[in-house]
UniProtKB/TrEMBL annotation:
Protein family according to the UniProt entry: Belongs to the GMC oxidoreductase family.
PANTHER family reported in the protein's UniProt record: LONG-CHAIN-ALCOHOL OXIDASE
Protein name: GMC family oxidoreductase
Domain Glucose-methanol-choline oxidoreductase C-terminal: 432-556
Alphabetized UniProt keyword annotations: FAD, Flavoprotein, Oxidoreductase
Organism annotation: Salinicoccus siamensis
Keyword Repeat: no
Domain of life the protein comes from: Bacteria
Length: 576
């Protein structure tokens, strides 16, 4: 029998970036907030001995335990979905801070084109360019870049983001809080080459800060030490903006926020007398397996893309998407990304073992609709960049094509190329297709008896064409940089969930201004439950050529405003 606890004003399911933002903003308004985090407590003091590549980067110390919960995967509905037994593509974070602890810190704003992709594409190229006969399902987000811009600005100031103006991005209301990071010889070489080709390179917006900063909540973030242990690691210096050093302490300092760790939510509870409202959640203590019911006036789902979807589905909230009829919205529009790049082999040596998670330069001349698509068989594009994130010795082994996988030549090439190779990568968007979606598995369950998420996904023709385009542009940059040999990325085949590619999963709980085409409205309020909010990359209607965290943070601040308004006014939130 589950033990029922005292009701709170606001309940967040997950305490990472989005959960921390909701908690901080609601708590500052005097609302009593509880955050349920299924992992453990952690912070900067836990990362003092974290320079252990094998433990953290290979064995995934900070990631979700797939022996307890994973997902099943297949390329198409006629295949059998099988459980994912290792974290390949998706490094799902676990414990306080979530993926906001182990991220690289590359923090972009999506382009204005992203938010109005359907209307802008149709207006410029005509309806046929939407390629609906090929199964693509583009739609606008229900909100414009200009409407979301103040929330982008808010998130960037919370992070103390280091960067510079992007001439091909959306208009900014203010400059970045801190100046860009150090421009290393590698970045200068990329800048000279890409500028020479007519492109517009800028320093990458970075949550690894170029200088110490105190954010508007009074939280202090330190200057980056360029130690090269960012992605898959927590920052021992408190110099990578993460929830544990920004929004979570800001929430706690109000006295109105409680983090409850080791608390795995298994169900959202709906009011038996009023199915337009939820009453709270049921959760399990992961150590004792004791069950609890936590009532709340407002429930906010703040966990990862797959977990937000899963909680809605197992709680029978919303209508599951059916790829045959295309009815239902829950689980539709799942998108990933493609990486069309190239590797250059040089005679000169570079300090590739040094760097930071978001130390890089990039240009957007082939991103979004910044280039003409009239004669191309794909839409959108990608952000093309060189990064100096720090090549660690176990996971880094750049080899020329056709090099043997063992023996003396393998060893010679490995040693020779470790500091003599640079990669230019095109991080490309993917667009929603009717055959790519999220569902629940009929066979496999997690450690708590809840069905696993089932992912059906494969690359489509547009992905392959976009990937090829970005690989060719990346190769041209490397040639201009003086590489003696350039190896382009191989053409895309079927999507494989291993090896790692990125953690940039989107869709499944998409936003919009029409309940027939979206799961939540533009305040991230669920169409079917007035006091339930869902926020994260699952709200994205499609993916972009960027890392998602900047846009997730902006949506979280907008959601927080909606939560506070609902707590005070109630009812269905309307734009104002």
């Amino acid at each position: 029998m589950a033990k029922e606890l005292d009701k709170v004003d606001v309940l967040t399911v997950g305490v990472g970036w989005t959960g921390g933002i909701i908690a901080a903003e609601a708590a500052k308004e005097g609302l009593k907030v509880v955050g349920l985090e299924r992992g453990k407590e952690r912070g900067t003091e836990d990362y003092q001995n974290i320079h252990d590549e094998y433990k953290y980067a290979i064995r995934y110390e900070l990631m979700q335990d797939v022996s307890k919960e994973t997902l099943t995967f297949r390329n198409s509905p006629d295949q059998r979905a099988l459980p994912m037994r290792q974290l390949g593509s998706f490094l799902l974070g676990e414990n306080l801070g979530g993926a906001g602890t182990h991220w690289n810190g590359q923090t972009w704003r999506f382009l204005p084109y992203d938010f109005e992709i359907r209307s802008m594409t149709e207006e410029k190229y005509g309806e046929d360019k939407l390629m609906e006969d090929d199964g693509y399902r583009l739609q606008d987000w229900g909100i414009t870049y200009d409407e979301l811009e103040p929330y982008f600005d808010r998130f960037e100031k919370t992070c103390g983001l280091s960067g510079e103006e992007n001439p091909l991005g959306g208009k900014r209301s203010d400059a970045y809080p801190t100046p860009p990071m150090i421009k290393t010889p590698i970045l200068k070489k990329f800048e000279k080459a890409s500028s020479g080709l007519g492109y517009s390179p800028i320093m990458m917006p970075s949550a690894n800060l170029s200088e110490a900063f105190e954010n508007p909540d009074g939280q202090k973030i330190q200057a980056c030490q360029y130690c090269a242990f960012c992605e898959r690691f927590g920052c021992e210096y408190g110099a990578k903006s993460s929830p544990e050093i920004t929004v979570i302490p800001a929430a706690r300092e109000t006295g109105n926020f409680e983090v409850r760790t080791h608390s795995n939510v298994v169900e959202i509870l709906t009011d038996e007398d009023d199915d337009s409202r939820v009453t709270g959640v049921k959760y399990v203590d992961t150590r004792t397996r004791e069950e609890f019911i936590q009532p709340a006036d407002v429930v906010v789902l703040n966990s990862y893309v797959f977990n937000n979807y899963k909680l809605l589905r197992v709680s029978d909230i919303g209508k599951q998407y059916d790829p045959e009829t295309e009815e239902g919205t829950l689980g539709r529009s799942y998108c990933y990304q493609i990486f069309g790049g190239a590797t250059g082999f040089f005679d000169e040596q570079f300090n590739t073992f040094m760097g930071a998670g978001a130390l890089g330069m990039a240009f957007d001349d082939h991103n979004g609709d910044n280039f003409d698509h009239s004669d191309l068989d794909f839409l959108h594009g990608g952000n093309i960049s060189v990064t100096q994130t720090g090549n660690r010795p176990i996971a880094t082994n750049p080899l020329r094509p056709d090099t043997p996988s063992w023996g003396s030549e393998f060893k010679k090439e490995s040693i020779e190329n470790y500091t003599r190779t640079l990669s230019v990568s095109g991080q490309g968007a993917t667009l929603p297709h009717k055959d790519n979606y999220i569902d629940l598995d009929e066979t496999y369950k997690d450690d708590y008896g809840v069905p696993l998420v089932k992912l059906t996904y494969n690359f489509k023709d547009q992905d392959r064409a976009r990937h090829q385009h970005l690989a060719e542009r990346s190769a041209e940059v490397l040639e201009e940089m003086g590489a003696k040999e350039v190896s382009k990325a191989a053409e895309l085949g079927d999507y494989s969930i291993v090896p790692y590619q990125s953690t940039h999963n989107t869709g499944g709980t998409i936003m919009g201004d029409d309940p027939e085409k979206s799961v939540v409205n533009t305040w991230l309020q669920h169409w079917d439950r007035d006091n339930l909010f869902v926020v994260g990359a699952g709200n994205f209607v499609h993916n972009s050529g960027y890392n998602p965290t900047g846009t997730v943070g902006a949506l979280a601040y907008r959601c927080a405003e909606g939560v506070i308004r609902f707590a005070k006014e109630g009812g269905r939130l309307e734009d104002k």
